[in-house]
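anyone else get weird line breaks when pasting these?? whatever heres mine. first is seq + tokens for prot A
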Amino acid sequence: MGIHLKNQSQIAKLREANLIVADVLDTLEGAAKPGMSTWELNEIAARRLKQLKAESAFLGYHDYPAVLCTSVNQVVVHGIPRKDVILKEGDLLSIDFGAYKDGWCGDSARTLPMGRITIEAQALVNATRESLERAIAACLPGNRLGDIGHAIQSYVEPLGYSVVRQFVGHGIGRRMHEEPHVPNFGVKGRGLRLSEGLVVAIEPMINAGGPEVFTEEDGWTAVTKDGSLSAHFEHSVAITENGPVVLSRP
């Protein structure tokens, strides 16, 4: 497979796809509230995607049955939208969403508070979001892949959180998952050298407790082993001569 570097026109196409992803996530963030089912959010996303004339990157991917992932509280990632999962006041809802437009893929995720959440939950959300910003700042030509993971790990672990190691970020382009793998942990100065034209989806998944995760019987839903809260943020980022460009930020 190898790593596919993108030129400016291809990055522009990836930007278009990622702006659609951001639009859908904004729509979901405006709609999500206690009392809704996660399936209702899936329906909203599907309708908005149709309006934007784009295709889901998730629906049918290895037989995944929905257009987005909705992961609540101790669910780390890949939570399947369901009619019987009703959002409650105080929940953390992580939404992961990807779309194709004109053959190019966008991918992004964010964790949303449902109503009033605890101070501890808010701190986890803030730390996860900030770790992503620090990882993005490390996306400079000449830096190494390990610098991205190190930026996340070295920020969250001193705060008492743990980095999920079972799932990682990835390259992105004409396919949702391209090389290289982009771990959320690493050693500074180690790994692949970052080059102009590399586009990566960076997605820290941070647990309030231990890093261990198990997958439920549905084959998708990944849950913290100790039942602790988890948060998840993701952006698709292009590495350019002028530094990182966040394609999935409006």
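and prot B, same format (seq, then tokens)
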Amino acid sequence: MEQAQLKKSPLWWVPSAYFAMGLPLILINLVAPLMFNDFGISDAQVAFWTSLLILPWSLKPFWSPLMEMYKTKKFFVVTTQLVSGISLALIAMALPLPNFFPYVVAIMAVLAFSGATHDIALDGVYITELDKTQQAQYVGWQGAFYNLAKVTAMGGLVYLAGILEGKIGVLYAWVIIMLLCGVLLTVLGLYHWRVLPTGGAEASQHSSFSETMRETWGVIAQFFQKKYIWIYIAWIVFYRFTEGLVIKIVPLFLKADTAMQGLGLTKDEIGLYYGTFGVVAFILGSILGGYFISWRGLKKAIFPLCCIFNIPFVVYALLALYQPDSAFLVCSAIVFEYFSYGFGFVGLTLFIMQQVAPGKHQMAHYAFGSALANLGVMLPGMISGVISDAIGYEKFFLWALVSAIPAFVLTWLLPFTYPDPQEKK
């Protein structure tokens, strides 16, 4: 009876589960570069490995059909949260080892695969358990708590790491942070074992392995047969190309000494400016970007959104050039860029949803489009550290701005397969 009462409202599990969804990706993508940098790992290695580690999020559509064959979606959500919690505890145990880096990267690979699998299963629970009205009703909670994970990790935990560093040293500061994250995900896994709905029947009722694989390849083939699909793939990848270059380097740039063209910020300052104020600005920008599209229509809004998304990365080139010592100026620049990032990002999401995904397999094709968007961040991220080490932060950020040109050209020429509803108004 108690279980049934808890499951009446999605608020029992939507906020907490989507918070758990965001944590592994943020830890690998944004927090790990700062941690590795503290231990003297070069920018090139940091950018390459932390970019490569997000590959499972780009490949997840290819193994998602296999999950339909085993257990319930709830089983995968709970299991992956526990696996992620244990993985983070193992990372904490590995950090004091003399040659820790390869071991930590290997454990993070497990964390990444677990996190990507968790995303598939949780989205499946959300879509299966909630009707269309509820899906719209709780999507705000979904997005807010996913981004709260970013505030918690890049804001609170990085800030705490900076405080602990002064008391117990860099090594044990990060050991404690990783342990805290591991405990948090483990507790969330146990909590969701109690409150999460199953997300459908036991998977033993589904197709055989051969039938599942045949269906999967059919879905993939139909995706690549869509009208304008190769233009859309190029556009999705290049829309985020500049973001992919700078996202790993910005935290390292903020932390680097001024003699190395950095800003010399402490970790608690980075956590406050970049991980707290910046993320709040991102959320606000996302909300306003949605209203901008609803006012202008996607077809008229898409080029301005591309400009708003890419051009504000110029703030990092200016910060590297002038190296201001004003905390207010640095924080304002970061907040402006993150607001613009959130404002422009909604254009990519909505275009994939309305122009790339529609058709017989809309959910699967949306997953493919999202995976390509992740690939657009991963590939430039893998080479960003090498470029940054070779030419310095100032020239690197200028080069990153030049790399946005293909996005502008493709967006200007971007064809629409389906009519924009706003054009009829």
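btw re prot B: The chain has 17 helices and no strands. The longest helix spans residues 362-402.
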